[in-house]
Amino acid sequence: MFGFVTLVLFASQHHTYGSVDDDWAYDGQKGPDFWYLEFPHCGGVRQSPVSIQTAEAVVDSNTLVPFEMRGYDSVQNLQMHLQNNGHTVQVDLQGVPISITRGGLKDVYLATQFHFHWGKVDTSGSEHDIDGTHYPMEMHIVHYNTKYKNFDEALVKDDGLAVLGFFFEVGKYNIPFDHIIDHFSEISHKDDHTEIDAFDLRRILPDNLDRYFRYYGSLTTPPCYESLIWTIFYETIEISENQLETFRHMIHVNYANQTSRYIFDDYRPPQSLNSRKIYCSKPVPTKKTTQQDQHSTSGSAALILMAALTSLTLLTDLLHLICR
Ligand SMILES: [Zn+2]
């Protein structure tokens, strides 16, 4: 009898989204407004990013429970491959399975890479925004559904990919990020790549991952496949201004032998929500009323109005209807 030789192939995970290359940009005639001409999916009705309006987002605590994250804190046998793909800085993950489940996901999703979107200035850079507030940078950790054979098969399925999105805020120096930033000189031009020492991925994430937004969307770059389950976390990651500056002033768009500008503003503008809804795991914390606000209103009518508004706030809070 013939024996079957089973080849267990560890397929390369060094993929960008699909295999399109350089037929798009973030500005000019190949910018986001024109992507749909070359990549029809980009003109779809389930596109990303979107603007998260907390007053219109709906609380769904029963479904959106905390995630179960595996392998996020292991470095043994983990390989990290850093690359400049001409659009962003990306870290491909190989070796140790890093996965997420629960968190409103029906399946187990395996992490393949993470990358960043950043602005030239602190007031822009993130792809998503909360109530119109953009952040200086956004990180996406891309996972694919293990019920499909591989990333490429999952890429075109409705529930194929799950991406975790994190906003950055300017703050204290973020030491774990130097694992990446220290190698920027090695990837300053397009297609440069290098192996870096693996580090504990959990250390770069915010402490609290229980509060997040959920919606169904797409890749934010061509070919814009509508295969993404998006999770956007409310708690931000702190990074220093100096560290942000290294993102803005070390990574080039093109090859070494061409005149090249630095990569920044590599974000797609918000897309129409259309008939979609955005959900949150918990309402966002209400901002504290300042002393000045309290003293500036006077008179009984104003007090009655305030009391009514307070009870209304309490009521919506109790019913957990909207995310704000
Ligand atoms: Zn992204």
UniProtKB/TrEMBL annotation:
It holds the Pfam family Carb_anhydrase. It catalyses: hydrogencarbonate + H(+) = CO2 + H2O. Gene3D superfamilies: Alpha carbonic anhydrase. This is Carbonic anhydrase. Its cofactor is Zn(2+). It comes from the Eukaryota. The lineage of its organism: Eukaryota, Metazoa, Spiralia, Lophotrochozoa, Mollusca. Belongs to the alpha-carbonic anhydrase family. The keyword Signal applies. The keyword Secreted applies. GO terms for molecular function: carbonate dehydratase activity; zinc ion binding.
